[in-house]
Amino acid sequence: MGGTTLLSTVLSILNVRYGASEMHQKADWLREYLDIQDSGEIINYQRAGTGLSLIQSWVSVVLLLGALYTGVVTGAVDWLNETGLHPATQGVLFFIGLFAANRIVGVPFDLYNTFVIDEQFNFNETSPQLWLRDLVVETLVGVVLLGTLSGALLILIELFKTALWVAGGWLLIVAFLLLIQVLYPRVIAPLFNDFEPVKTGELRDRIESVFDRAGFEAEEIYTMDASRRSSRLNAYFIGFGRTKRVVLFDTLVETLEGAEIEGVLAHELAHWKRNHIWKRLGATVVQLGVVLAVLGYLLTTDWVFSLFDLPADATYAGLFIALLFVMPIFELTAPLVNKLSLAHEREADAFAVDVMGEGEPMVGALSQLATENLSNPFPHPWYAAFNHQHPPIPERIRLIQETAEEATSDEAT
Question: By its UniProt entry, which Pfam families does this protein fall under (predicted)?
Answer without folding.
Answer: Peptidase_M48, Peptidase_M48_N
